[in-house]
Amino acid sequence: MKIFCIGSLPIISANAPSDSANPGLHHRHPLPFLCLRWAYEEGNLQVSYIFPNGDRYGECCGSTEGVVVRRGMGKHTSASGVTYTGEWHDDKMNGRGTLEHPSGALYEGDFKDNMYHGTGTYSFSDGTKYCGSFSKNKLEGDGEFIDSQGLVWIGGFHNKAAPGLKLKLSM
To answer: Residue 147's Cα: distance from chain center in Å?
Structure first.
């Protein structure tokens, strides 16, 4: 394997998501430069982004326009310690993935356009957990919430509200 860094290059792709649409990577890359680390092994070219703020992303591919984008399976680690491992499409978190926060909070599930969207599980750092439906980063639809005492509450969730939750009894 040969690895070499070609230095700082202008970022060609400027489709970084806005902060409100990005649940785990709460920042934009302020400088329009990045370092690309290239590895060539057995006929395959692998590219790793190393952003000026310390974020890292590996396993990029070239697009039809000749731009290097995140696509397929990959891992992005932010300088603040947030890590996303999962599927990418059009340079965004799309498909199944896991988003880990330094606080211990963890989301495992579906993503669409860098947002929790579909079915997933969000484990809060205090040990509580929500399993169910998400829509654009919000709890939306049927789900269950496991509180800090281990009690399971089921019902319909709408953003931060969950009217009519029922305690699920284990017998």
So the answer is: 24
Q: Which amino acid is present at 85?
A: T
**74 has which bridge partners?**
86
pLDDT at 35: 47
Residue 38, pLDDT above cutoff 80: no
The 3-state secondary structure of 98-164, one letter per residue? EEECCCCCEEEEEEECCEEEEEEEEECCCCCEEEEEEECCEEEEEEEEECCCCCEEEEEEECCECCC
| pTM (predicted TM-score) | 0.69
Q: 145: which 2 tokens?
A: 């919430």
Tokens 């000749």 identify what position? 66
